[in-house]
Write a structure and sequence with these properties.
The complex is a heterotrimer. By secondary structure, chain B is α/β, with parallel strands linked by helices. Helix content of chain B is 41%, strand content 9%. The longest helix of chain B has 18 residues, at 160-177. Helices cover 66% and strands 0% of the residues of chain C. Classes of the chains: A alpha/beta, B alpha/beta, C mainly alpha. The interface between B and C is large, with 39 and 43 residues. The complex binds iron/sulfur cluster.
């Protein structure tokens, strides 16, 4: 199967660095400690994974971590292009910091900025760490964290509610 | 907000040491008084403005598709004299098409400030009324907090007929209440002053 | 009493004033431009199976649309940004408007000498020289606006000027060669019946026609003002009345060039042949109306292109001008020389 080849190549490159593996459909993710993520990225890059498809994060308040995942794949090697390899890093929720991988994969630059503004993960060594989609006062609140409260839908309880009216 | 000051920044008297073209503000005021006060051209101005509402292309969201359909062969809003135009300096209508995010709110206000008065705004879609399906999003503004809106159209998205109806309503408003001529006479709109946004939407602009 | 009326009429119809200000000058130009703009919008709408401007005056088919636009423009706030060069910003469109009307002084509308504003010996050259002035002010308008789109637009205009001007001049000289004269009246008189230069020398006619389209940024050469690339080209910062003047000046230039084309290629007033003794009506007004109608038809054809053609890129248009249209104009000129040598006319 195609994913097997991708998986074996990635495993070979990351031997001794990763601490766990998760697998999905067409997708395999390796869990990497935050200190060794640069090493892992360089190994994957030299194995032929030449670009980052997306950088995303999951907030897990109960466990007190934020997991940042880089999805990498390849354009230059058609065999590696069949699957997606993830590197997952768990960071402490109160002070999430990790080294930036945008030096290794340039396509990660804007997406790291996005994770920065939505989750507050600080990427050390990023060339230009500013909010990209949100205005700065909003970006300080990190709206995609689970403890950011939005207005809920309400159940109508009878009577007249006073709404804010347009002028 | 820096753009709020742009009215004063527009047409000052020319500086020292330049070729004088006269005091444009005073000349404009005198011409206004003569034409609208003495010659009673108000009705004519209202008629001209009502049948020449050129909307600026400012597509913020999915309602833009309906906006396009309104000017396409089937619904043809050019019948009412409205012609979509690209440059805000030559237009006098802005159709806010759906959701306005906070950064787009800044752009909306900038485009609004670039248009010459008398100018009008139509807010289109549930999103522009009160957020629509994004009512509790952290990243939207209500357009009526940014620009003074004349006509609201509900619907998600509104039908092209509804937009055409809004243009006709706006024409009726202008001609019955004499909005345009009053605006020109007084220099600014009394009944609907431009709102000052609650948040500093343009701070990203300064970077 | 009759004497007074005659005096007033002779004042109004004093050719230097009448030609410049009334017809074929400013007033007629504005009327025809308003009609042509309405026609342009209406044709585009019809080609796209729409109705076009209608509701403003349902009984006239929306013919008042341009009047409404004009009123709106004249009463809108004229914004003059702080960053522009105020004097040049205001004077450039006005100068453009005036200068684009001036060539009408050198265009005869009747063969009778008392209707000529200036002596007509070298009128073709004078008219050509005067039509080449207005691009300077368009470039100045773009430059004074101090806006990147304006500057790009005026640079494009400058490119187009270099491309079309030579074509236009050479293709009009192709008319002067067989007549052995720069006199526009003699050129018209040479085109009796169906011997119009448009038929005798179609190469030069086509080249001149395309050069007019290029010079006034009509489709498919609407490059300096192409909306999707440079917002409104040199006019991006203009609003209110000044923008109206800008737009009007471009169309008036096209109109004046169409009149010149009519005189040089389409036989001018030719179905009519005013005799030396003719009065005001037969000797001046009737030939004038014929010329205006012909020019309006030429402009209407140009407007029709808006509805059916896409837009060239700048490099394609300049390439076309230098590689195809300039040789075509030269071939037309050669044809004119052959006619002149053989004495066909
Ligand atoms: S109202 Fe509906 S169609 Fe319009 S922008 Fe909002 S979600 Fe889109």
């Amino acid at each position: 199967m195609s994913l097997d080849a991708v998986r074996s190549r990635a495993e070979e490159a990351l031997r001794g660095v990763y601490t766990g593996v998760e697998e999905g459909k067409g997708f395999v993710a390796f869990r990497v400690p935050a200190e060794r993520v640069v090493e892992a990225a360089e190994a994957l890059k030299s194995a032929g994974f030449d670009h980052v498809k997306s950088v995303t994060a999951v907030d897990r308040p109960k466990e007190g971590v934020i997991e940042v995942t880089y999805h990498v794949s390849s354009y230059s090697d058609p065999e590696l292009a069949r699957g997606i390899v993830g590197i997952t890093v768990s960071l402490p929720r109160d002070n999430p910091r990790m080294p930036s991988l945008s030096r290794i994969w340039v396509s990660a630059e804007f997406q790291e900025r996005e994770v920065f503004e939505f989750f507050g993960v600080v990427f050390e060594g990023h060339p230009d760490l500013r909010p990209i989609l949100l205005i700065p006062p909003l970006a300080e609140k990190h709206p995609l964290r689970k403890d950011f409260i939005v207005k809920e839908e309400q159940v109508y309880k009878g009577g007249i509610t006073k709404l804010e009216q347009p002028p | 907000m820096s753009t709020l000051r742009s009215r004063e920044a527009r047409a000052g008297p020319p500086e020292e040491g330049r070729l004088y073209v006269g005091n444009l503000d005073a000349a404009a005021r005198r011409a206004r008084e003569l034409l609208l006060g003495k010659m009673k051209l108000g009705k004519l101005v209202d008629w001209g403005t009502a049948f020449s509402l050129w909307p600026v292309h400012f597509t913020t969201s999915c309602c833009g598709c309906e906006f396009a359909a309104t000017w396409s062969p089937r619904f043809d809003a050019e019948r009412y004299g409205a012609l979509p135009w690209l440059s805000p300096r030559q237009t006098n209508l802005i159709v806010i098409e759906g959701t306005v995010t906070k950064k787009m709110g800044c752009a909306l206000r900038l485009v609004w400030e670039q248009m010459p008065h008398p100018k009008f705004a139509i807010a289109m879609g549930a999103c522009a009324l009160d957020g629509g399906i994004f009512y509790n999003s952290y990243n939207i503004v209500r357009p009526w907090e940014v620009v003074p809106v004349d006509v609201f159209i509900p619907g998600c998205p509104p039908r092209p007929e509804a937009l055409a109806r809004a243009i006709v309503e706006l024409q009726r408003l202008i001609r019955e209440k004499g909005v345009a001529s009053k605006w020109i006479e007084e220099g600014e709109r009394e009944d609907k002053p431009a709102p000052i946004p609650k948040e500093d939407l343009c701070s990203w602009w300064r970077g | 009493m009759a004497g007074v009326v005659d005096t007033i009429i002779s004042w109004i119809f004093w050719p230097p004033l009448f030609q410049l200000v009334i017809a074929p000058g400013l007033v007629a130009a504005l009327a025809i431009v308003i009609f042509i703009l309405w026609f342009e919008r209406k044709t585009a709408a019809r080609v796209q199976m729409r109705v076009g401007p209608y509701n403003v005056s349902p009984r006239l088919g929306g013919a008042l649309q341009l009047i409404a636009d004009l009123i709106r423009y004249s009463f809108q706030e004229p914004i003059i940004p702080k960053t522009v060069d105020t004097a040049a910003f205001i004077l450039a469109p006005l100068a453009m408007l005036v200068i684009s009307v001036v060539p009408t002084a050198a265009i005869p509308v009747s063969p009778l000498p008392w209707t000529w504003p200036i002596p007509m010996e070298h009128s073709l050259l004078v008219a050509l020289a005067l039509t080449t002035l207005s691009p300077v002010f368009l470039v100045a308008a773009g430059w004074a606006s101090n806006n990147k789109f304006s500057v790009i637009g005026s640079t494009r205009e400058a490119f187009m000027v270099t491309a079309y001007e030579l074509v236009f001049i050479i293709s009009l000289l192709a008319v002067a060669a067989p007549v052995h004269s720069y006199n526009l009246v003699e050129i018209v008189e040479a085109q009796a019946g169906w011997r119009m230069f448009a038929i005798l020398n179609p190469l030069a006619f086509l080249a001149a026609f395309i050069a007019i389209l290029m010079s006034t940024s009509g489709f498919p050469f609407e490059i300096p003002e192409s909306e999707h690339e440079v917002v409104a080209g040199p006019f991006t910062e203009y609003s209110g009345l000044l923008y109206g003047i800008d737009m009007g000046a471009a169309y008036i230039k096209r109109y004046v060039m169409s009149v010149l084309l009519t005189i040089a290629f389409l036989g001018g007033w030719k179905p009519l042949d005013p005799q030396p003794g003719a009065g005001l009506l037969a000797g001046y007004i009737a030939p004038l109306v014929v010329v205006l109608v012909k020019a309006t038809i030429v402009m209407a054809v140009m407007s029709f292109f808006r509805a059916v053609y896409g837009r060239y890129r700048l490099d394609q248009a300049v390439d076309l001008a230098w590689r195809v249209i300039l040789p075509m104009a030269l071939a037309g000129y050669a044809l004119g020389l052959i006619y002149g040598y053989l004495g066909v006319i």
